[in-house]
Amino acid sequence: MTDRTGWDGLRERRMAEPGAMDAYDATRRAFELGTTVRTMREQRGWTQTRLAEAAGMTQSALARFEAGGTVPTLALLERIAHAFHAQLVVRFDETTPAA
């Protein structure tokens, strides 16, 4: 008989591995940044091609970024902000350590 585990058990084991939470948080941030850019682009009625050209990148690279598949550099975020005639704001927020 094989030892089978459901998704919840697998996820629990994987998240307990060293570095898993940091990787999860980085992926979440990349996804949130991509979603924000996609929302701003759609609000302006722009295509991915139009934004990509304005930001000096390819449409496929923008599509990957908007889907959360890549972690953008600050330089890329600045180019996208410039294309939108927006200001990039980066800040640090204090966090409360877990008890």
What does this structure look like?
There is one protein chain. The chain has 99 residues and is an all-alpha fold. The protein has a single domain (15-84), classed as 434 Repressor (Amino-terminal Domain), CATH 1.10.260. The chain is built from five helices and no strands. The protein has helices at residues 7-15, 20-43, 48-55, 59-66, 74-84. Helix 3 (48-55) packs across helix 4 and helix 3 (48-55) packs across helix 5 (74-84). The radius of gyration is 18 Å and the shape is elongated. The model has no long low-confidence stretch (mean pLDDT 90). This is Ribosome-binding protein aMBF1 (Putative translation factor). InterPro entries: Cro/C1-type_HTH, Lambda_DNA-bd_dom_sf, TransReg_Diox_bact_type.
Keywords:
99 residues, mainly alpha, 434 Repressor (Amino-terminal Domain), Ribosome-binding protein aMBF1 (Putative translation factor), Lambda_DNA-bd_dom_sf, DNA binding, Cro/C1-type_HTH, TransReg_Diox_bact_type
> Which residue ranges are poorly predicted, with pLDDT under 50 across at least 5 consecutive positions?
none
Structural class: mainly alpha
Helix content: 55-70%
Number of helices: 5
| Gross CATH architecture | Orthogonal Bundle
CATH superfamily: lambda repressor-like DNA-binding domains
CATH top level class name: Mainly Alpha
The overall strand count is 0
Q: Terminal Cα separation, in Å?
A: 41 Å
Rg from Cα: 18 Å
Q: Characterize the largest beta sheet: strand count, sense, and whether it forms a barrel.
A: none
Query: What is the H-and-E element order?
Result: HHHHH
Provide the domain count: 1
What CATH calls the topology is 434 Repressor (Amino-terminal Domain)
> What does the average pLDDT come to?
90
Strand content: under 5%
